[in-house]
Amino acid sequence: MTTARAHTNIALIKYWGKLDEALIIPQNSSLSLTLDHFYTDTTVTFDENLTADSFYLDKKLVPRQRTSRTTHVLDIVRAQSGEKRFALVKSTNHVPTSAGLASSASGFAALAAAATKAAGLNLDGKSLSRIARRGSGSATRSIFGGFVEWHQGHSDETSYAEPIQEVIDWDICMLTVIVEKKRKKISSRAGMNSSVRTSPYYDSWLSSTGKDLTEIKQAISNKDLVQLGEISERNAMKMHALTLSASPSFTYFNGDSIKIMDYVHSLRAKGIPCYYTMDAGPNVKIICRQSDVPRIISELSPDFSSDQLILAKPGSGVTYLD
């Protein structure tokens, strides 16, 4: 029995679309920041008395028809380790599920770490990231802390994540504004597939995202919050432009999402460097300096309560709790 904890990550350079659906190899490389506030704890026990894998999420048994990705990851671990037994998986999400806050990233990263160790494997981070990727693409980045790059690659062996800057010693954080905790209507996978197939701008997205990735890595090296924020914001909006230009058109925004964007523009006009990013969900993440958080919260407070505003700092990579 092994318990592992993995934190969510928020992509600053987005991954949106798969080159290989089976191996979950992306159409482009991406880069993220791991956050300390949102995480998943997962315990895996291989048990000879089990006749099938069982998965409990937040103490509720998940129906077998909804656990195919979990079983797939466990099958990969069994194939690599020689473990023959089925597994009992108990997972607790300290992040809303399917609301665009990367619960699948922390979930499958924690699963990969706990399952491999419980099966007797001792893998390095790169190898763990490849296994986590087979459950959820973004999970490959949650194996590590800080700023993390997921190399696109073109095979199972070459598509993996590695840290760019694990120890972050400069003033950067992320204020998440929770506007909805419900499961999103259009999953990330469905949204990606539609965008790749039908958006007339998809090729431009791929070419411009490569440039964004090069530039943001330079911003990280220079510890330049303004450049990092500007690149992250424009990359996020390009990704969401793909959903708006898909056929049929769809969006992950809601009215509050747009309201928060307007607040951020207003704050910048007042001299506060802050920038928004959004994944596949309506919740908005504001990239800013920790020293500016009180002012930002003060500006947002007329429309958003304190329990909707969650401050997250750079988080660590996978850890083991036993």
TrEMBL record:
<dbReference type="InterPro" id="IPR014721">
    <property type="entry name" value="Ribsml_uS5_D2-typ_fold_subgr"/>
</dbReference>
<keyword id="KW-0456">Lyase</keyword>
<keyword id="KW-0547">Nucleotide-binding</keyword>
<keyword id="KW-0067">ATP-binding</keyword>
<dbReference type="InterPro" id="IPR005935">
    <property type="entry name" value="Mev_decarb"/>
</dbReference>
<feature type="domain" description="Mvd1 C-terminal">
    <location>
        <begin position="175"/>
        <end position="306"/>
    </location>
</feature>
<keyword id="KW-0443">Lipid metabolism</keyword>
<dbReference type="GO" id="GO:0004163">
    <property type="term" value="F:diphosphomevalonate decarboxylase activity"/>
</dbReference>
<dbReference type="InterPro" id="IPR053859">
    <property type="entry name" value="MVD-like_N"/>
</dbReference>
<dbReference type="GO" id="GO:0005524">
    <property type="term" value="F:ATP binding"/>
</dbReference>
<comment type="similarity">
    <text>Belongs to the diphosphomevalonate decarboxylase family.</text>
</comment>
<feature type="domain" description="Diphosphomevalonate decarboxylase-like N-terminal">
    <location>
        <begin position="6"/>
        <end position="161"/>
    </location>
</feature>
<dbReference type="GO" id="GO:0005829">
    <property type="term" value="C:cytosol"/>
</dbReference>
<dbReference type="GO" id="GO:0019287">
    <property type="term" value="P:isopentenyl diphosphate biosynthetic process, mevalonate pathway"/>
</dbReference>
<dbReference type="Pfam" id="PF22700">
    <property type="entry name" value="MVD-like_N"/>
</dbReference>
<dbReference type="Pfam" id="PF18376">
    <property type="entry name" value="MDD_C"/>
</dbReference>
<dbReference type="InterPro" id="IPR020568">
    <property type="entry name" value="Ribosomal_Su5_D2-typ_SF"/>
</dbReference>
<dbReference type="InterPro" id="IPR029765">
    <property type="entry name" value="Mev_diP_decarb"/>
</dbReference>
<protein>
    <recommendedName>
        <fullName>diphosphomevalonate decarboxylase</fullName>
        <ecNumber>4.1.1.33</ecNumber>
    </recommendedName>
</protein>
<dbReference type="InterPro" id="IPR041431">
    <property type="entry name" value="Mvd1_C"/>
</dbReference>
<dbReference type="InterPro" id="IPR036554">
    <property type="entry name" value="GHMP_kinase_C_sf"/>
</dbReference>
<keyword id="KW-0444">Lipid biosynthesis</keyword>
